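Progress narrative, work stream C.
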Amino acid sequence: MVITTISNSILTAQIKHTGAELCSLKDNSNKEYIWNGNPTFWGKHSPVLFPIVGTLKNNTYQYENAEYHLSRHGFAREMEFELIDKQENSATFSLVSSEETKEKYPFDFELQLIYTLKDKSLKIEYKVFNKGESKLPFSIGAHPAFDLPGNFENYSLAFEKEEPLNYYLLEDGLISNTTNELTLDKNELHLNYKLFENDALVFKKITSKSIIILENSNPFLKVSYSDFPDLGIWTPPNAPFICIEPWFGYSDKVDKFGNLFEKEGVQVLEANTTFHSVFSIVII
């Protein structure tokens, strides 16, 4: 396994070349903020979700009278990226379409992930280049898992804004027609595992563009995602971490599937143009 390390005077980050996946973020006291990937709970750390977020109905879509299959969250997280630029505090990774990717996703693209440390923050940039002559439909999202040692119920999430937080329930990984509203203490969500009995909480068009994680009311990490319209929050049963997931798009609905271009939340990139989005992890 190939890993690239970047650092500044405060933070050190490690990124696996497989999936260009952030696998460690430590401060200079050696405190780890990213989940260690123990497969007992979940064998990932912070995968990129591309070219879909979530699940397609029957893992299938149609394009130009042909049927294609994509597994949950797409293929980028399992593929080897090339390190194309490395500085002391930054690294850029690239994945380019190939015959292998075109069997599942018949489009010409380049996906870049750019990691940059500055002071107490890690900035993560996504760039999607449409290398083809036709339009490129895609979704993209982040899936960072933050380590929460000790009692899970000691932790809470503070949303940037006080707003009605209606989330969609998942049904076999698909967006159901059922919503619930989170009960907040002012703008704070106290964590417990019952919240995630039906899988992730999915928020469409969320107004809050940052979330702070607190332990016993003490803030220690902030995720900012002003570019991203949608959000998922997830943890599996009894796992000592929480995923805060900025997204463009989400799973298919239980009663609708087919054409990627018509998929709810999909981005459509014109030929020879570039998509760019940024989120950041800030140590408080």
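Work stream C, second folded protein:
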Amino acid sequence: MGFYADQVLPRLIDKACGMKVTVPERQRACTGLHGRVVEIGFGSGLNIPYYPSAVEVISAVEPADLGWKLAGKRLAESAVPVERSGLDGQSLPFPDNSFDTALSTWTMCTIPDVDAALLEVRRVLKPGGTLHFVEHGLAPDTKVQSWQHRLEPIQKTIAGGCHLTRQIPELLTGAGFEIRELDRFYEQSAPRFLGALSLGYAAAPPMNG
């Protein structure tokens, strides 16, 4: 992966995504998780404190070994069992209909083939299972969008392929999810080009539906 991507970027993400301003958003995204949960883009385990008691086990999908290492203290203190179960959200190593719920926080921006990843999440969710998410993406305002398009090449270079202009609701519906709740807003204290958030959950109908 290279020294920067392997040793530096996971630490930067841990610090940037671990700011206190993200806590309410993580809490909201985790609300309603239950049973067996697959979390794509587990990172350094920043969601661990907010897993509800109804969660039985977390199957964590995370490609970065250092990210998993940085999660060590959180994993040790977790009341919910967490197992590292995959490295690539685009190809999940689970049978169909394996999970009750799924979680993605600040992850869809970076996955190279996000359409494939969402189809995989839908495949491994039980029919009616829900994907809970908070993601940044294309802003609702044209002036902010213009800046996002200008800055995206730089963002992709320094932030491990992170896109600023992905349209999260459209990605979800394009993968066949039915959005049940969606809140779109700008994150407090974040630059608008980086803080246009989509938060909610979407249900997975049967794959042949």
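The chain has a mean pLDDT of 96. No further action is required on this item.
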